[in-house]
Amino acid sequence: MNLLPEHTSATALREAWRAADAMGVDSLWIWDHFFPVTGDPDGTSFECWALVAAMAADTARATVGSLVSAYGYRNPDLLADMARTVDHVSGGRAVLGLGAGWMQRDYEAYGYEFPPDGARLRELEAALVRVRDRLALLRPPPIGPMPLMVGGAGEKVTLRLVAQYADMWNCTGSVEEFQRKNAVLDDWCARVGRDPASIERTLSVFAEEAPLALSTYAEAGAQHVIRSVRDPFDLGDVSRLLDQRG
Length: 246
What we know:
Layout (H helix, E strand, L loop, with lengths): L1 E2 L6 H14 L3 E4 L17 H11 L4 E4 L2 E2 L5 H15 L3 E6 L4 H6 L7 H21 L10 E4 L6 H8 L2 E4 L3 H18 L7 E6 L8 H6 L4 E6 L6 H9 L2
């Protein structure tokens, strides 16, 4: 479940992720934006990794992570250390999600350059290498598996990066689009010599979308469906999806 940290309060977020964890959701996520993405662009919003750390401390079952962090907002070595620290707080349940970022306002308002798409993807690859190298140096290391997720669906670069570096892949869009991109990822795995079964395939379902049956997602190749919810955090759809699990 992805809790949207816009137009809400920290209290409401904490109540929602505690309730979702008690329901038995597999994963809990926060997106990485400094401003609202929907609704009033000047509405309330909260920073991703401070929330993920609080979520790690407040919950006991679900994995916790970023869906996904823009590599350019934080030094990649520092981000690796942040995620490792959250992993210890959570008891080994952290996931580090990374992507190239897309929201220009986030970059410019916080003093970061916003490179063109091609440059951001090149820098994402460099960031993935730095994150992996830093994780190998940290003492103590993560106590859980701390999977590295890459978000995005670009067929020429992003899916290659998933095949080369990621333990998990997150995609957005229709089931039909996901199915096609999933096949492209399999092709990249063959080209770089990666076992496609070693990459967990996740699909984000936005808050505005009515979720389909889990069997429909599974038939398209999704192994993990991430349902977005927004304040007032009605968990009804999440509950109905959980009832279909297994």
